[in-house]
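Worked problem 6 (solution included).
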Amino acid sequence: METLYYEVYAAGITPKSVDFYAWLLILAILGANVIISHLHKEEALRFIHELAVGNPPPANDTAIVALGLRDSRDFGLLIDLAKSARNHRSDSPILQTYHAQAAIELGDYQGALGILSTVELMPGLNSTISSEIYGLRGRALKEIFLHLPDKTSEIGHAYLSGSIAEYRKAFRLGRDWAAVNILALSRLGQHNFGQLDQNFQSEVEGRELLTKLDQAPHSTRDLWYHATRAELRIGFDDISGALDEIAAYLSDPSVTSFAVAGTLRQYTEVWNLPAVSDEGAGIVEALQARLLQMNYGQLRLNHAVDAAAGKAEALGTRNLEALLGPEGVKSIQWMRRGTEVARSVCAIRQIGGGKIGTAFVVAGGDFIPSLGAERVVLTNSHVVSGTQPGSLHPDECEVVFEEIGELSNTPIPIKELVWSSPIERLDAAIIRLVLPIVASPLSLAPRLPLADGLQKVYLIGYPRGDNLSISIDGNVLLDHEGPATGTPPEPTIRRRLHYSAPTEKGSSGSPVFNASKWEVIGLHHAGGQIPRLNGKSGLTSANEGLWIQAVAEEAKLTSNI
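Solution. The predicted structure is:
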């Protein structure tokens, strides 16, 4: 895929040689989603530079790039672009609504509310943008409510009522999707407070909307037609009817992982489907598996995963295939294996502070033969070592497994640093904990996948220090220095691999898995604009890991144990 990217550029087809929209169309025809992601990033960086030197790009182009960044879940760069446009007075209301959406995705709900208040004061508003403002404000208030420790408090009532009021404004502007939020939040209100006075008609409105959608001409039925009907069916306890609508929604070629993630969040956080029935839990597990089939998906391994585990079969083979394709059952089994290996991934946390990186359990003997079957933890030396720039000393850190039963979220101090390799070599550290490690050691892949641009890789870690997540963000293995075609600058150590999965602070030390068996192929350690591998000229926007077998070989050669 990376080769195709550079060949397209080499042919002289670039965003500067053709109309920007034509360029996107060319890549869409090629089916090059990862290339499009590269383009959005490069264009965003170029736009930020042009804004800084007083040469602002067309506002419409900036908004298109921002939308692409949103759909590829590159929220940090989207925020940088929106801030740059605002600071250099080249702003637009639609760009700032994307800015607010990115802030919500990153958990900055109050910040999003501030952005939306500013957008309301901007010229050029229309009913479409106004409805987006209301919907996003409703979501921000909803998220604040959902994260309250006491949802039955007066402040909880205020946030929930405020959220419903904002969604009602959007509904009055003809936005049908707002009605399902009103219905869902009204149910939450009934559960936490009894009846919310202003929402006594929510179910009536929902049924009126369902009747309206039944009568809609086929030519007007878009992606959200089926998504809205599905959620209305759930609201009326019609799980069977919802299944058909969800299948139609997922089969729409325009559906994105961003949309599916939102649907999954609504089904778990608001409707709490896993608690409704086995079929409801099965829908959630199937959607989790569907998310892992898609580019730019990210599955947070939280209570919803545990609550839905093992329930997909309640839907039956026909429904699973409708939701996930002919390999539906295999997709579920594959996802379950991914969530199983995630139990061996842990967070590195500064004592008294937050998460600073990721680590994972390995068999010590795979790296240092004298350790035998002892279970140890592997991470980056730039995270924990005390000898590398920016690293913390082992006695300043603790390890937390969030997925291990009785030990879940229990801080475990580090006993000692067993072995490390410097950043400029393999950026790896093996550490021993003060308690025996319960989690199983991960399996190491004996070889790297082909570097043909078609192989997928998966990361499990703690992006932004958030929940443990499986990352599917444009997960293509771009290149590597391994056998048989790699040409590393230092022939004795074939160490680096490049992949397109965007990662964020907190991902350092994450295991990189192959797609077939969930075996570890690499140790993630860096990313950004980095030199291409194997003597190729130029830079690439990629992430970099260290081949796990190169780390193992280095440990065997240099350890003093």
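Discussion: The chain has three domains: 2-119, 147-159+172-341, 344-561.
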